[in-house]
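Schema walk-through. Below, the input block comes first and the output block second. Nothing else is stored per chain. Lengths vary across the set, and this one has 244 residues.
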Amino acid sequence: MCAVYAFMRRCDDLSDEPGANRASLDQWRAALADALAGRCDAHPVLPALHDTIERYQIPARYLHEMIDGVTSDLEPRRFETFEQLYRYCYLVASTAGLTTIHILGFDSSDAPLLAEKCGIAFQLTNILRDIREDTERGRIYLPAEDLAHFHVTEDDLRAGLRTPEFIDLMDFEADRAREYYHESRPLLGLVHKSGRASLGALISIYSGLLDRIERSNYDVFTRRVSLTAAQKSWIVLRAFGSCK
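--- output ---
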């Protein structure tokens, strides 16, 4: 898990750090291809990543798709429809979930689709939390069709206007995320028992973050909504206690 996280953290950093460009991500993709072939000297994480991929038979396409997703963030983002946003969420988040369940272990053919939906729920939660920061970077992830339906403009988002129309929009988007949490919940019973507590804790932390965003009445412009370390620790302890 540390190797996979380090790989994905590197992907994210290459798309967000000052001076980020396509050439850096192309070089990282080439380094991944070399690592998959056993040539792992381009970055310290690659030997461990190669071992993890081989040991758990993780499809390499998930890692390439992650790079596809973060590469798309190099340019200002706009999505016309939710279907387009879904594809983006799959690339940057569901791929992480699909990789993770191979490490946790699963036997049911239903697990990959549920892991995909779980990743969608996580990324939708991130999008709702990070509207201010993303807008400042020229990234507006909420679909244009939803903005138009609720009469919210991009200028409203840039100005940080928490209008009644914005609250209605956020209610709609939060309900959508909640539905993906609900649909993916059976995944907990499909991964091997040794991994259920970890996955359960992760789901509870992200869904708890969504709860907190809702309880703040979507005050995402003046502060970054988050769970405290104590709240996260309690969630983890409860998850491991329930899986004994």
